[in-house]
Amino acid sequence: MTKRILKFNIYRYDPDVDRKPYLQDIEVEVDATDRKLLDALVKLKAKDDSIAFRRSCREGVCGSDGMNINGTNGLACLADLSTFPDGKTIVLRPLPGLPVIRDLIVDMTQFFKQYHSIKPYLINNDPLPERERLQSPEEREELNGLYECILCACCSTACPTFWWNPDKFVGPAGLLAAYRFIADTRDQATNERLDNLEDPYRLFRCHTIMNCVEVCPKGLNPTKAIGKIKDMMVRRII
Amino acid sequence: MITVRKFDAVIVGAGGAGLRAAIQLSEAGLKTAVLSKVFPTRSHTVAAQGGVAASLGNSEEDHWHWHMYDTVKGSDWLGDQDAIEFMCRKANEVVIELEHYGMPFDRLDNGRIYQRPFGGHMSNFGEKPVRRSCAAADRTGHAMLHAMYQRNIKANTQFFVEWLALDLIRDAEGDVLGVTAMEMETGDLYAFHAKATIFATGGAGRIYYSSTNAFINTGDGAGMAARAGIPLEDMEFWQFHPTGVAGAGVLITEGVRGEGGILRNSQGERFMERYAPNAKDLASRDVVSRAMVTEINEGRGCGPNKDFVLLDITHLPPETIMKRLPGIHEIALQFAGVDALREPIPVVPTCHYQMGGIPTNFKGQVVVPGKRSQNEIVPGFYAAGECACASVHGANRLGTNSLLDLLVFGKSAGESAVDEMKQSPKPHKELPTDAFDRTLERLNRLNTQKDGASVHETQLAMQRSMQKHAGVFRFADLLKQGVQKILEVQKDVERTEIKDKSQVFNTARVEALELDNLIEVAVATMVSAEARKESRGAHVRDDAPDTPERPDGRDDVNWLKHSLWFKDENRLEYKSVNLRPLTVDTIALKKRAY
After folding, report:
1. Domain ends where: A46, A75, A106?
2. Given CB atoms, is B547 within the 8 Å cutoff of chain A?
3. Are residues A64 and A139 in the same domain?
4. Are residues A141 and A192 in the same domain?
5. How crowded is residue B298: how many other Cβ atoms within 10 Å of its Cβ?
6. Which residue in the set B100, B151, B500 is minimally distant from A50, CB to CB?
7. Could you tell me which residues come within 8 angstroms of residue B441 by beta carbon, excluding any fewer than 6 positions away?
8. Of A96, A238, B254, B589, whose CB is crowded by the most CB atoms within 10 A?
9. What are residue A68's phi and psi, to 5 degrees?
């Protein structure tokens, strides 16, 4: 089958050897069995083993290989090589807004700190029933579009508000998770969860820019979830 | 320089088994470290799709004893019946616990957990398919892994994220005292000194060229155990999942067939009717995979090269597909370029699951043959999930039993460790003076290697050898050559070289160290497979044909026994299968038919 040369321009930085970050131009030959950007990156790494990036499932469910691809955040394992025009350089950068550890690997501490801050676990203090807690199919459907988040951070690192206030604004991923528990009929901590977000920054800094919706590789809509939380906040006051 | 840190318990791996064990230890108030080379929700449990088995009976009558029968039969009688009874009886409890943790299971109209049929799961001792698989759409593993990670946040579990465990620490008496590990971000070395060490490191499906497994499935626990003198059990048994996307290898859940999907050959024929008249497309995975390969070998494959078959769901209502199988619809679009609502999906059997592993009993304690018994406990060492062999899957695992395995045995390993520490509290045993030698030697060798072998090329050579010599069907002569080939590859693994010498997040070094683990599993597989001169479950040889005395080539007189492979000189020992359940009668040997 047809072989093809792909040109890359990749952000490189290894604090162990580099005084400052630089951009590297590098090419790699791929064939018809290489469908996705991740396949090409694996071939690149075989050529130059110092290129560092995270990857695991290669099918878009583990959330490891989020990166900035030609200016847009996405997962390398879902970016189809056929969508890159022939001869045009593919520009790869680490996810923006987070400190770079090395090359395409960012330090996600701040991202997970915000996720943890919304208490991402079911809170229900009733005595445990012997069997499952009941939930109707309609109630369960409320969780669709919320529970599927893979914590890849594509959304939060595409959000200008998160860039400016990563320590104060929860960010789209964390807020989506917050609403996932608020929307769960089994959870009893709605008020506590709303209190936790009642602050000028944590929730209300979202200016509905909607970058999060555009980049989410799972097609989720954090902005909608944020809107629902805001509604609940308002209704709680009046 | 190695810094020593002391914990009550160290868990290696934060997939389903590791997280379930961690809940047990953290909630018991023990000082626990969970090491994972990836952020917990990136572990491969996340990719499980179709469900977790439990005889809840939410849609129709079901019983753990039926589930036990199916599992023994599925294992082709190689599974230990005490462990199988234990797992099937515990299933309802651990699934209900998950629901209480907040797992978003799909629901029935009456509000109970939704259950779907799955391969090999039958009612009334093998009569007809039963709805036993508890599912969250086709994202059950994702929903489960996140729910358990979330429960661990609540329990304040201490995680060491992106730390690679390197070697097991054992003293002269054979007791396990912890692991050495590397913090990937800094390259710094540590030892985790612990009273209990629990391995939950997952499988090693990346020994094969075509695999549904993630890049991280490199058999780290098996490799560490093997280097420390622990044998690996039943490594010849690898599950080839019938439906990996042709070319890409990405998994398409058996739940697709559970929801009514049908496999078809190039003539459009529903060929499974010929191979499994009763269960048809929902026969056991080994049976379906062999049927598919037979169809392809006999010229009834599809596509220009006639090298795949088709998984057809176009007759299902689009609502069902979008509600129950939304992830599959997405995967088919992404990796096969087909809209599954309108076109069938090209699929091919793909390496999926390691039935064998580190030998344990049903309490999750690691056991090895000794002077007193064939199952002597290794003090301080536990294992659960795919890296372990309890043995509940025997020669072939049933779908949905892997998620059940990691819940039940993750929990029981955690409980055993807690009980041991609470009932007989002891101080930490002293670390031996040579505790770090193996790790330091490996790293030193890798860092100073000149004119060595490429990690990438060596890994490919291993994967191609495994694919060719130990596939769905196995041939005596190919297995013999395979042993020679894999031993040659092993020599290259001992001289791999990396160009990147950085201390900071050195993924080249990580991959080289992972290959050290993969090769142990590959050698164990090839050597054990070559030696087992019968057909059983997923291990089917050309020189063990179907005869009246040995139906389907299974030789219970000589081979109803577990293989134990020792790294030391590739020695094989065998131990008997436990045919005695805990409370019920033995499920008697019989020919397996679906």
Report:
1. A106
2. no
3. no
4. yes
5. 10
6. B500
7. none
8. B254
9. -95, 110
Q: In terms of Cα–Cα distance, which of B345, B3, B57 is closest to B193?
A: B3
Q: Whole-angstrom distance between the N-terminal and C-terminal Cα of chain B?
A: 58
Q: CB B106 to CB A137 under 8 A?
A: yes
> Which has the closest alpha carbon to B288: B312, B265, B272, B304?
B272
- pTM equals 0.97
Tally the domains of chain A. 2
Instruction: Sort strands B453-454 and B496-497 into parallel, antiparallel or unpaired.
Output: parallel
Q: Is B358 helix (H, G, I), strand (E, B) or coil?
A: strand
CA angle B532, B537, B539 (to 5 degrees): 40
Cα separation, B326 vs B322, whole angstroms: 5
CB burial of A167-206 (b: ≥16 within 10 Å; e: otherwise) equals: eebbbbbbbbbbbbbbbbebbebeeebbebbeeeebbbbb
* Tokens read off for A51: 């290129």
Tens place of pLDDT for every residue, chain B, 594 residues? 899 999 999 999 999 999 999 999 999 999 999 999 999 999 999 999 999 999 999 999 999 999 999 999 999 999 999 999 999 999 999 999 999 999 999 999 999 999 999 999 999 999 999 999 999 999 999 999 999 999 999 999 999 999 999 999 999 999 999 999 999 999 999 999 999 999 999 999 999 999 999 999 999 999 999 999 999 999 999 999 999 999 999 999 999 999 999 999 999 999 999 999 999 999 999 999 999 999 999 999 999 999 999 999 999 999 999 999 999 999 999 999 999 999 999 999 999 999 999 999 999 999 999 999 999 999 999 999 999 999 999 999 999 999 999 999 999 999 999 999 999 899 999 999 999 999 999 999 999 999 999 999 999 999 999 999 999 999 999 999 999 999 999 999 999 999 999 999 999 999 999 999 999 999 999 999 999 999 999 999 999 989 999 999 999 999 999 999 999 999 999 999 999 999 999 999 999 999
A55: left (phi over 0), alpha (psi -120 to 50) or beta: beta
Do the chains contact at B215 and A116, CB–CB below 8 Å?
Answer: no
Residue type, B193: H
The answer to whether B359 touches B389, Cβ cutoff 8 Å, is yes
For residues B173-197, one letter each, b for 16 or more C-beta atoms within 10 angstroms of the residue's C-beta and e for the rest, the string is ebbbbbbbbbbbbebebbbbbbbbb
Q: Which two tokens stand for residue B246?
A: 């042709």
CA distance B10 to B413: 12
How many Cβ atoms sit within 10 Å of the Cβ of residue A20? Answer: 6
In this structure, the answer to whether residues A115 and A73 fall within a common structural domain is no
Interface of A with B in 140-179 (CB under 8 A): 140, 143, 147-148, 150-151
- Is A15 near chain B, with CB under 8 Å? yes
Write the single-letter amino acid at B547. T
* Last residue within a domain, chosen from A73, A106, A139: A106
Tell me the nearest-neighbour CA distance from B45 into chain A, angstroms: 9
∠ at Cα B577 (B283, B548), nearest 5°?
55
Comparing CB atoms, the residue among A35, A122, A136 nearest residue B111 is A136
Question: Residues of A with CB below 8 A from B503's CB?
Answer: 16
CA–CA separation, B214 and A59 (whole Å): 9
Q: Which domain holds residue A53?
A: 3-106
* CATH number (domain holding residue A67): 3.10.20.30
For B176, the token pair is 């396990």
Nearest chain B CA: its distance from A210 CA (Å):
23
Q: Which DSSP helix (H) or strand (E) runs through A161?
A: helix A160-164
Q: Inter-chain contact A147–B247, Cβ cutoff 8 Å?
A: no
Predicted-assembly ipTM surpassing the 0.90 threshold: yes
Residue A181: give its domain's CATH number: 1.10.1060.10
